[in-house]
Queue: 4 jobs
Job 1
Amino acid sequence: MLLSIDNLKVRYGNIEALHGLTFHVNEGEIVTLIGANGAGKSTTLKSIMRLPPPEAPRVSAGDITYKGQSLLNVEPHDVVRKLRIALVPEGRHIFGNLSVMENLMLATYSRGSDPAIGKDLDRIFDLFPRLAERRDQRSDTLSGGEQQMLAVGRALMTNCELLLLDEPSMGLAPLLMYEMFRTLKQLNREGLTIVVVEQNARLALQVADRGYVLDTGEIVAEGSSEQLASDPEVKKAYLGG
Ligand SMILES: Nc1ncnc2c1ncn2[C@@H]1O[C@H](COP(=O)(O)OP(=O)(O)O)[C@@H](O)[C@H]1O
Ligand SMILES: [Mg+2]
């Protein structure tokens, strides 16, 4: 088991947002967390990244372990640098006034003069040829889809082993959504473990191995993607019948 969330309770101030969440991710899997707006999906990812309050919650009970080690007392920069977990946040958060290349290179800051940086950059430009064509362009002039590719590329430039994505399909035209999920599948085949949070459950269940359904801070269903996609309750609530 690579990542394990055990009976996790977190709060924003006095408000509990996760009420005892339990789920796990095995090495090499794509796991999806699906659920409606406000269910606690982003909160779960922020908790794993150990981002500080107020934008992220405080853990009040339970544990988050990665490779058997508790993350609760790990600094956010060490989550990225030492444990090699990266987040593609909701809304992308790229630096619009910087070029594509500058955004990608910023993510390598903690890697020092790692000789593999050049190779990783080539790989990202292979995965996303549009980014290669636009490497010197200001990032705020990219389309929404290209900005999402840049956000994924930037996370990959940290040399992560576990990639967390928060609603990567948001705001993308259908064709670009499929392209993005195809790319995630390819990265997974090359060894990357992925947790993807989505409101677009149909799409997420097409690429994930397993999934969990989150409803107001609790897991209400879990199983293989096939099981969830054919579950009558899940179909009714999340797949449009
Ligand atoms: N920074 C915050 N401060 C206070 N409450 C928050 C904050 N972020 C999220 N919440 C609350 O936590 C709950 C879960 O939100 P969130 O994790 O963003 O859901 P989702 O990503 O599934 O849409 C919601 O009730 C939301 O209002
Ligand atoms: Mg969210």
Job 2
Amino acid sequence: MRAHDTTLRTARLTLTPLDPAADAGQLHRAYGDGEVMRWWTRPVCADVADTERHLASCAGRSGARLWTVRTADGEALGMAGLLGEVEVPGLTWLLRKDAWGRGYATEAATAVVGHALGDLGLDRVEAWVEAANHRSLAVAARAGLSERARIAQHYAHRDGPHEAVVLGRPREEEPRTTLGVIAELPVRDVAATLALLGAALGARTGFAIGEPPEFAEVALTPWSAGPRFRLAAVGRRQRVSPVRLHLDVATAAGPLHRRAVAAGARVDGEPTRQPWGRTEFVITLPEGHELTVSAPA
Ligand SMILES: CC(C)(COP(=O)(O)OP(=O)(O)OC[C@H]1O[C@@H](n2cnc3c(N)ncnc32)[C@H](O)[C@@H]1OP(=O)(O)O)[C@@H](O)C(=O)NCCC(=O)NCCS
């Protein structure tokens, strides 16, 4: 059954409301292809019935609007649309392999974005694309989306987590006044803390002021911007109120945990799977600050 009844037309394509029962047969050429499904949230679909079940579950989510992407003569090339049950309207697209490299995905995505921000009156659309999925990143960029953030994801059928780019396009451009939040931890020994975090987490010193350093930046990326926090020296007699930081990582928790233990950091217990879908362990600094290293479970 179709979840909506809007057909979209572009110069070369017709996007018809996706009907899982009627369209699964043709769309299985995409959903049954390991190369096409390499980046998908689930493994390749085993057969047409599996494709139909997957399409029905996607199309059945509240707010979902999916289209079957067709050539002018009605041949189904793939799917494009809006995901259901997401906080910010999210885009999705996929084409069977022999339809790649002809601009069809960009044409379909642009139509969906135009419809979402136009007729549907949505304020913004988003796409989460794995950082290594260059073809999909290019589609998002050509459909007018730009990078807004990065997140760590872990699909149940994959061995480990991966980094995803959150791309977005607002209906009207809006200024972004806050680009980051930087925490400052009071510590007794800035240099020793920098050394410990370097060994335990591979953190780098962004800057260090004073000799020995009184104030420094702990950079958790090799690049000149990105996740970081600061350390400020406090005197031996000053009271320190411990704080807790969550470090959102896109690698498996196990190897990081082993590295932290080997570095001599105070690590409490093994990585633990949390009910909120993360695997976490805690590094406690001498002042009692807790750094929760949090990987997607
Ligand atoms: C993501 C995906 C849909 C992109 O398909 P695509 O065909 O690469 O994307 P486009 O439609 O934008 O096509 C662009 C290519 O068509 C070429 N092209 C040929 N004729 C064109 C035309 N008339 N207009 C525009 N581009 C044209 C472009 O030069 C470009 O070529 P390039 O790949 O060599 O740079 C496809 O790779 C796919 O299905 N991947 C698997 C599923 C997936 O990852 N989905 C996204 C999950 S986030």
Job 3
Amino acid sequence: MAPSATAHPLRGREQGNLPEDVSSFVGRSFEVKETRRLLSESRLVTLTGLGGVGKTRLALRVARDAQRTFTDGTWFVDLSELHDADQLAQAVASTLGLQDWSVRSPQSVLIDHLADRRTLLLLDNCEHLVGPVAALVQTLLRACLGLSVLATSREPLGIGGETVVRVPPLTVSAEPARAPAPADVPGGDAVALFEQRARAAVPGFRLTAENSATVARICARLEGLPLPIELAAARLRALSVDQLLERLDDRLRLLTRGDRTTPSRQQTLRLCIDWSYDLCTDREQRLWARLSVFAGSVALDAIEGVVADDGVDGDLLDVVTSLVDKSILIREEVDAAVRYRMLDTLREYGRQRLRDEGDPIALRRRHRDWYEDLVLRAQRDWIGSRQVERVSKLESEQSNLREAMEFCLGDPPSAASAMRIAAGLYEFWIVRGRFKEGRNWLDRALADGGPPTVERGEAMCVDSVLAALQQDTPAATVSAEEARQVAGRRLGPGRADTGDAAAVARR
Ligand SMILES: Nc1ncnc2c1ncn2[C@@H]1O[C@H](COP(=O)(O)OP(=O)(O)OP(=O)(O)O)[C@@H](O)[C@H]1O
Ligand SMILES: [Mg+2]
């Protein structure tokens, strides 16, 4: 029996999904207060600024503070890995845990759900999809009066009613920090951040009368930019603060070729990342670049499976650990499983390095193979006591699975893989109620014709079942018929049996 065509959130997900802080949050009391105030006056507030300046951290803090106001939930939607604008509304709906089995558009499902609710959506990293995000946000805000949106983007969305807040770097006071001052560090928030991260790198580190002036100078040289400060503080494992400042000065002088102009913030950011990269060993550099093929976060076994034979030999865990020590990778624990994540700015840098080495197609195909295998194994062992675990594993790999399918669609030799992955997720699409998304991938994989392969036949069957479950009988019938023809051409006349699909479609 087809489920009813209404959207409802998965149980236990009504209040939101704000992630836990992965490291301490520093300062920003003015920006937090101001952004909250603006959010109470304007239903769309966009935090803009340079990569790594702290937009996401600030937005999360504001959203957490505002949770009480938004009685129907506060939702964090990470858009950084989404490349296909057509999937935008679906991605938001999936994050909200909305299951909808009908053929209605994800946008109308969202409108229906949000119309009478008091909800905050935090749309993180909109810059690469500014136009489509702006269009969706405008439609949602018009139709859902209890909805507010807090967006982060390197550029504004550019729609009426948007309040733009430029996120400044952390404050660095002109006066060198006087130490020790545990509560309110006089060197400004930048020095406080440096101190915290330095303590994580070198447990006994403290601001003292001797080192505080140097620390304040380092932070001033880094213009209060949080990401460069974190990367620099991680260097204290190997250098004293004086050495750190000296080397930083040398680098900056080199950057401006000795003239008196100060580098732009963008240049400072780039320089700090270059510097971190240069100080990595060959193996760490290779791994940093190669990890950029993953999307979202990644587990160690996937790293081993995809990059182990690619010049990052030896004990991979050691190299991963040193990238964590250097603040290039963030270690996260989700349901007792350890995963690794890279900040966007650092991943983009890794991607560029990978491209500089040549076409990374072989690596991307290994990424594809690893995730295809994951899907096929999950499907083979679907029935069993570990099914719930498998579903949540596939859930945590969504970004990588989408990345793999997206790659396959642009790589003709991978066409069959796209069909196998999208069809292999059959049970997953069903238990998660993601019929629309499943059909979307299947339709794209099947779009350009191609020979009547087993993969094609199976993908059509799955497509047909998903359409039938959505009560889209015409589409289900077409897919089932096509599946039958593919099977007929492979097996000879009269022997085609497309099983479930045709049966469901005929109902
Ligand atoms: N107020 C803060 N307290 C502690 N850490 C911070 C703060 N602001 C930023 N950071 C740290 O600096 C790094 C960059 O911050 P964040 O990811 O928020 O930047 P962003 O502006 O969102 O960057 P992007 O444009 O690349 O998404 C992160 O590691 C973050 O934890
Ligand atoms: Mg961000």
Job 4
Amino acid sequence: MSLVKPSERTPLAYQIGRESIDEVVYDFYDRIQNHPTLSKPFSIVTHWKEHKEKIAEFWWVVLGGIPNSPYKYDPVNKHFAAGFTQELLEDWKALFFEVLSQHLPLNLAQAWQSRVELIGGNLLMQNDRLIQKILK
Ligand code: HEM
């Protein structure tokens, strides 16, 4: 068995390709706008084109791509303001994996979804911390 050093592995962003990342993100947010539970919190988004572009760039960088745009993110406060909950996160993850599975081979879909799990868990923890802080 030949081992590939982490520094020599092709980042997931390049294995998937920017075009496919854009397609996944655009399809996902098109479906969100008609989703039974997710459409409501997402009704605060008014500029969908900008939102999709920003999130596509977010994933490109999270998956190891070299940044193209200098976006600033404030995800914890923005998700708190949008009414983020564990239930909504479960729905979000299920829809995301459905979209991933329709666009990508299973190994790439699973690899991307494992990043979703990490970030989702982190968002939930930080959202809970923010709630505890406010309740104090
Ligand atoms: C793993 C799951 C999720 C990831 C990776 C994710 C990622 C992101 C990112 C990167 C942004 C941009 C934040 C910024 O501009 O600073 C965003 C915005 C947003 N997210 Fe999520 N999100 C997730 C789950 C959810 C869930 C469950 C909800 C439901 C409440 C949600 C609702 C929103 C809304 C409404 C915005 C737009 C906020 C605004 O522009 O004011 N997200 N998300």
